[in-house]
């Protein structure tokens, strides 16, 4: 059996090569504001978790994605709590002062802190995140600030649980006593299943899920490993010693907002914030219970795992059918929490990629065929949709200009040793002014009759007072001039604002008209789609009728052909019978004609004989006339009969006629 895939990786492929081909484009799209979804799919024990997390010394896809994100946005990260996620799958932005107050308030609360990236890492996973290639995204928008949030959930028995939620250790499995009943413990609080909701943009999210803001790869992976991976449900089966009994989803959210026109602070506009996310999903392996020998809870877990994977397959098949045949069948997302959570990705909200893990064991042959058949089918589904990013309207390069200005300001301050003046003329006038101040004379009185020290001090103070008045007058003039400039600037800004407001009003009217036109066109499209659907149904009915009529026509034509052939056979048969009958009657007629001719000849011969006899009788000599006997005597004495020759053989016998007595002149004899 042959299957075709976009890329095939052998057993000796390292994690970096797999990451560069599969996951790196998803990270690039994440930083550019697009969503991404990455699955690892396969039979149990085929290496899905190893592909996602990796091993010591060779990190998997998840740590490499985190490293690439922070290598790319490291210098441009916002301070903690500048971005705040709300409970409706949105994000807010606040000023750095509010963020500082938030940090101080959080530090004062007696709550466990998120893992810090500066402390020493746990050697259990330190080698997994030690990525040496320093991969990063090129052309990152430097005029934006970024914030990274991570969350970790699992889907167990079709219920969603938050793995980062603060809960007692081993709260998933309560303690059992000898009577096989759970121990009543007031401190034990079982984890609550989370609910899926839809935000205002029709994106699905998990309500009340813990989302932690992280600032480094180490901090993010420590959250994943310590807080989440330790709580994930695994069990020992016949096929895998550490078999995942749930689908785990690690979600990386990236919030980015532009800097203001000065390039110093974050722009305080929520509409300009772009929130994108990358979901890394480690699916539980499909398995057959007759091979795993699962019982009890393991059997129930396997049933739920297989059911969710079957729902995923059904959704992909319906999407493929809708795409190939242009149908509009409803995709059954709600049949499983897994497909319901990622409904938006299948509707075109982001790029979806799937890694199929295959174990070459002979025992996994049937399951591997099913997995590869499904994975090959998913390649034919394309539901991409463009994502519109909000336009900022500010000049690019603001951050670099702000940094250059600060560096130049610091350099001037270092050269001058004080604040920088406004211009060269004002600097020289100020220097001359300060140099023109008369030095204060000595104020020490050594003699009661000293009349020179106080007048000199009074004169110096008067001169300083006059200079102060001159400075105050000049400052007032400058203030008035500056106020005039500010008023002119305000009026120009007001006029520009009015002009911009008018333009915005016109644009809004245009947009409203375009929206109305779009709604009209959408309604028209829906009407046309409905008409097309009706026409397709009508065409289908007509085609069915056409096929039926064609079949009926073909059957009737075949029947007519059979009748024509029967008619031809009957005509041939009748023709043969007519020919045979005509020949028979011809022969019969000839026979009858011959018989008739022979009969006529016999009759003629008989007549000739009669005539001869009659002639002989007539011409017989009469010597004397005998007496006429009486009739009684004639009757008593019969006359002798002459013997005539027999007729020809085959001639019909002449009918017998009764004889009667006649006179001598009329007597005649009939012969047989």
What can you see in these coordinates?
The strands form five sheets. Strands 1, 6, 7, 10, 13, 14 and 15 form a seven-stranded mixed β-sheet that branches. A two-stranded antiparallel ribbon has the order 2-3. Helix 1 (15-31) crosses helix 3. The relative contact order is 0.08. The chain is elongated and about 250 Å long. It is built from 14 helices and 15 strands. It has 672 residues and is α+β, with helices and mostly antiparallel strands. Among the domains are: 15-108 and 143-168 and 199-387, Kinesin motor domain (Kinesin); 461-609. Helix content is 48%, strand content 11%.
Entry summary:
The chain is α+β, with helices and mostly antiparallel strands and 672 residues long. It contains 14 helices and 15 strands. Among the domains are: 15-108 and 143-168 and 199-387, Kinesin motor domain (Kinesin, 3-Layer(aba) Sandwich), CATH 3.40.850.10; 461-609.
Question: What key attributes describe this structure?
Answer:
Kinesin, seven-stranded mixed beta sheet, Kinesin_motor_CS, two-stranded antiparallel ribbon, alpha+beta, disordered C terminus, 15 strands, 14 helices
Uncertain stretches of 5 or more adjacent residues: 113-118, 169-182, 184-188, 418-430, 639-645, 647-672
CATH topology of the domain at 15-108 and 143-168 and 199-387: Kinesin
Question: At the first level of CATH, what is the class of the domain at 15-108 and 143-168 and 199-387?
Answer: Alpha Beta
Going by CATH, the homologous superfamily of the domain at 15-108 and 143-168 and 199-387 would be: Kinesin motor domain
SSE class = alpha+beta
Strand content: 5-15%
Q: How are helices and strands ordered from N to C?
A: HEHEEHEEHEEEEEHEEEEHHHHEHHHHH
Subcellular location: Cytoplasm, Cytoskeleton
Domain Kinesin motor: 1-381
Pfam families: Kinesin
Keywords: ATP-binding, Coiled coil, Cytoplasm, Cytoskeleton, Microtubule, Motor protein, Nucleotide-binding
């Amino acid at each position: 059996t042959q299957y075709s895939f976009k890329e095939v990786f052998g057993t000796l492929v390292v994690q970096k090569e797999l990451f560069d081909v599969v996951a790196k484009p998803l990270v690039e799209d994440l930083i550019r504001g697009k969503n991404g979804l990455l699955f690892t799919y396969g039979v149990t024990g085929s290496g899905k978790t190893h592909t996602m997390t990796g091993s010591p010394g060779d990190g998997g896809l998840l740590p490499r994605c985190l490293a690439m994100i922070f290598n790319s946005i490291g210098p441009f990260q916002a301070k903690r709590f500048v971005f705040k996620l709300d409970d409706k799958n949105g994000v807010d932005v606040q000023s750095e002062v509010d963020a500082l107050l938030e940090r101080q308030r959080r530090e004062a609360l007696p709550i466990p802190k998120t893992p810090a990236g500066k402390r020493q890492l746990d050697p259990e996973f330190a080698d997994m995140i030690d990525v040496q290639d320093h991969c990063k995204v090129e052309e990152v928008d430097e005029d934006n600030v970024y914030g990274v949030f991570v969350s970790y959930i699992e889907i167990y028995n079709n219920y969603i649980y938050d793995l980062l939620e603060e809960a007692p250790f081993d709260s998933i499995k309560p303690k059992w006593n000898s009577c096989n009943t759970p121990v009543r413990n007031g401190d034990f609080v079982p984890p609550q299943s989370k609910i899926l909701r839809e935000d205002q943009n029709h994106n699905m999210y998990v309500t009340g899920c813990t989302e932690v803001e992280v600032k480094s790869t180490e901090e993010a992976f420590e959250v994943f490993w310590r807080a989440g991976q330790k709580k994930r449900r695994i069990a020992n089966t016949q096929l895998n010693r550490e078999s995942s009994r749930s689908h785990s989803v690690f979600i990386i959210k990236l919030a980015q907002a532009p800097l203001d026109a000065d390039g110093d602070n974050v722009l305080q506009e929520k509409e300009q914030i772009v929130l994108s996310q990358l979901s890394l999903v480690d699916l539980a392996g499909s398995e057959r219970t007759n091979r795993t020998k699962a019982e009890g809870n393991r059997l129930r877990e396997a049933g739920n795992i297989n059911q969710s994977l079957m729902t995923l397959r059904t959704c992909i098949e319906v999407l493929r059918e809708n795409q190939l045949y242009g149908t509009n069948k409803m995709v059954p997302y709600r049949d499983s929490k897994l497909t319901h959570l990622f409904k938006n990705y299948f509707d075109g909200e982001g790029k979806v990629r799937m890694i199929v893990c295959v174990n070459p064991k002979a025992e996994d042959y049937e399951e591997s065929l099913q997995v590869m058949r499904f994975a090959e089918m998913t390649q034919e589904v394309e539901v991409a949709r463009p994502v519109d990013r909000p336009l900022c309207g500010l000049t690019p390069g603001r951050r670099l200009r702000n940094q250059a200005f600060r560096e130049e300001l610091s350099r001037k301050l270092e050269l001058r040793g004080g604040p920088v003046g406004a211009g060269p003329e004002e600097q020289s006038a100020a220097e001359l002014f300060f140099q023109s101040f008369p030095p204060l004379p000595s104020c020490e009185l050594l003699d009661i009759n000293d009349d020179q020290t106080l007048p000199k001090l009074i004169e110096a103070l008067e001169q300083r007072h006059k200079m102060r008045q001159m400075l105050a007058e000049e400052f007032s003039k400058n203030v008035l001039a500056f106020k005039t400039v500010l008023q002119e600037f305000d009026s120009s800004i007001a006029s520009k604002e009015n002009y911009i407001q008018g333009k915005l009003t016109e644009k809004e009217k245009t947009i409203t008209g375009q929206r109305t036109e779009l709604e009209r066109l959408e309604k028209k499209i829906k009407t046309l789609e409905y008409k097309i659907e009706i026409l397709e149904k009508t065409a289908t009915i007509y085609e069915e009728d056409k096929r039926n009529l064609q079949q009926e026509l073909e059957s009737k034509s075949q029947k007519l052909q059979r009748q024509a052939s029967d008619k031809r056979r009957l005509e041939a048969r009748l023709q043969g019978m007519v020919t045979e009958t005509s020949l028979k009657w011809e022969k019969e007629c000839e026979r009858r004609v011959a018989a008739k001719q022979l009969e006529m000849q016999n009759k003629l011969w008989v007549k000739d004989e009669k005539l001869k006899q009659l002639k002989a009788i007539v011409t017989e000599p009469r010597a004397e006339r005998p007496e006429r006997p009486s009739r009684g005597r004639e009757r008593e004495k019969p006359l002798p009969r002459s013997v005539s020759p027999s007729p020809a053989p085959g001639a019909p016998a002449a009918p017998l006629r009764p004889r009667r007595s006649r006179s001598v002149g009329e007597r005649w004899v009939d012969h047989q």
